[in-house]
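Board notes, transcribed. Complex of a protein with zinc ion.
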Amino acid sequence: MIQNPTPPPLTGASLDRAAHLRDDPDALARMAADPNARTVVFSHDQTLFRLTETGLALEWKPLGEVSGDEPPVFLGLAGDEPRFVTRIGDAEEPEGCKYIDLRSALFSGDFKGDEAAIVSGAKAISGWHANHQRCARCGGATKPAQGGWKRQCDTCKAQHFPRTDPVVIMLVVNKDRVAVAHNVHFPDTLYSLIAGFVEPGETIEEAVRRETLEELGLRCGRVDYLCSQPWPFPAGLMFGCIAEALDDEFTLEEAELSEAYWLDRDALAAVFRGENEKISPPRTGAIAASLLKDWLDGKVGYGT
Ligand SMILES: [Zn+2]
């Protein structure tokens, strides 16, 4: 087993979450009033970016200049400067700035690194608030608490916490080949790894085995976890895995996949070089691209 995965995009955010301050109303008020407090802004699930010569940068607005639908969520500390996320309604775009869908920004390759990791968490928590205005137990109105890391129901007193949905995504390998598949919802020639939600009562490894059998018709021998990536569309946590296929003939789940191929390293390298007319690789920013490149480079694999 070779296991030296490259940290995927959207990981390693530099912010100190300072979770101990979420339960301290005085500290939260002090930080909200701090002239160095800054906030990332979402309007209708789109992120406010500044257009720069080298690509896209998050537009960190002074917190006092932004009035949100609800109190801002405390993201953490950059050094000793507080950082927040604020969700607003209709909004004008400041000079040189634009509201852009985060997924498009990531796929463009113009936005990555630490800010991408920070805003990925900001998007997930902001979206959770937008979609959890009502109590799942009694239907009553909920309001944010703990700096935005909890919602409280006024009616039945239930507490609701931000959810994260586990998803497995796997390098399915057979000897010196890896399986790539075209999902019926993918554009044109895009091929990627298969993936699926972990179901209640399952382990990560069991979910990998079940999804590989359901989608590709392949039984798995060995299954190993490699690395993970938050994927805030809307609240995924992708568990990157590798699985050894015991079969080599695909039986595709036709509602999900229209085609699949085994690629050896030479063929996969050609795909990444753009030399295969039928197959284009997963997009920049996605863990699938990261895992496939690591397998290609020999950083992960079963050593065959
Ligand atoms: Zn309730």
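The first helix runs from residue 25 to 33. Residues 135, 137-138, 140, 153, 155-156, 158 surround zinc ion (CB under 6 Å).
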